[in-house]
């Protein structure tokens, strides 16, 4: 591997890092199957008791999932769901639901 | 001309009513919603402490969920200092009215029939039902889900 290739590889890694943090909506869609039972395939919940997720801020969804995971926020159903989620899963799921159309900033 | 005079009278009466409300210091639902808007109505607004993330979008959220969330803040079951402080001061009726405001579809999506578009069976009583008296203590009857 020559110097140019090494530089190129480093540049690619650097470019990929933010993408990892941002999450991949398409991957999140595939991972969202268990979520859909309550929150709907389109992110609009099947019951008014559950929150709609479609279009919610990605960073908010990530914060909430982490809160369920670390116990800051308590909900029997959600705590069971998030137990096995990695940071990558959280980013992907949040990217997927935030990319849907639904919620809005209402003034 | 007559109708104009009636309109003028109506406006004057409304103005008088509004002035009365202001004079008595009564907190209206408009005041409550204005309080929500201070954070939730601003595009890009974020929490400041202890973590930084965007405040959630509320427009189009399920009414029953909004009410449940407010009750969970009020009871202390859900933890966020700002929301606990705000929810502590809300009656069940206030919560229903706030939820009706945000739960209704955004004006851009529906010009008319706004309440009909959002199914609101919910355990919560409609806003027209006489609400339990405000300030009847922190443990509202519906605090447990």
Shape of chain A: globular
Overall average pLDDT of chain A = 89
Low-confidence stretches of chain B: 6-21, 106-145
Write down the oligomeric state: heterodimer
Of all protein chain pairs, which has the greatest interface, and how many residues does each chain bring to it? A-B, 22 and 31 residues
Strand content of chain B: under 5%
Which runs of chain A of at least 5 residues are low in confidence (pLDDT < 50)? none
Q: Helical element count of chain B?
A: 6
- End-to-end separation of chain A in angstroms reads 57 Å
- Principal-axes shape call of chain B: globular
Provide a descriptive summary of the structure in words:
The complex is a heterodimer of chains A (about 110) and B (about 140). Chain A has 6 helices and no strands. The longest helix of chain A has 20 residues. With about 140 residues, chain B is mainly α. The C terminus of chain B is likely disordered.
Question: What descriptive keywords fit this protein?
Answer:
A: mainly alpha; Cytochrome Bc1 Complex, Chain D, domain 2; B: mainly alpha; 49% helix; disordered C terminus
């Amino acid at each position: 591997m020559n110097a140019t290739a090494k530089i190129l590889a480093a540049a690619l890694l650097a470019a990929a890092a933010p993408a990892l943090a941002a999450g991949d909506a398409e991957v999140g869609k595939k991972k969202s199957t268990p979520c859909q039972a309550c929150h709907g395939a389109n992110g609009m919940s099947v019951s008014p008791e559950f929150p709609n997720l479609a279009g919610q801020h990605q960073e908010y969804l990530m914060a909430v999932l982490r809160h369920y995971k670390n116990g800051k926020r308590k909900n029997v159903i959600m705590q069971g769901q998030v137990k096995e989620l990695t940071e990558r899963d959280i980013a992907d799921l949040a990217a997927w639901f935030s990319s849907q159309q639904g919620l809005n900033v209402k003034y | 001309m007559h109708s104009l005079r009636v309109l003028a009278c109506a406006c004057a009466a409304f103005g008088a009513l509004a002035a009365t409300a202001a004079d008595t210091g009564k907190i209206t639902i408009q005041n409550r919603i204005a309080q929500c808007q201070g954070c939730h109505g601003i595009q890009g607004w974020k929490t400041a402490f202890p973590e930084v993330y965007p405040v959630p979008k509320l427009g189009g959220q399920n009414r029953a969920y909004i009410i449940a969330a407010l009750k969970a803040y009020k009871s202390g079951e859900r933890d966020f200092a700002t929301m606990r402080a705000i929810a502590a001061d809300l009656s069940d009726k206030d919560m229903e009215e706030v939820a009706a405001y945000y739960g209704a579809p955004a004006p851009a999506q529906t010009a008319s029939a706004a309440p009909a578009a959002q199914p609101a069976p919910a355990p919560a009583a409609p806003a027209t039902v006489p609400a339990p008296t405000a300030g009847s203590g922190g443990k509202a009857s519906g605090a447990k889900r």
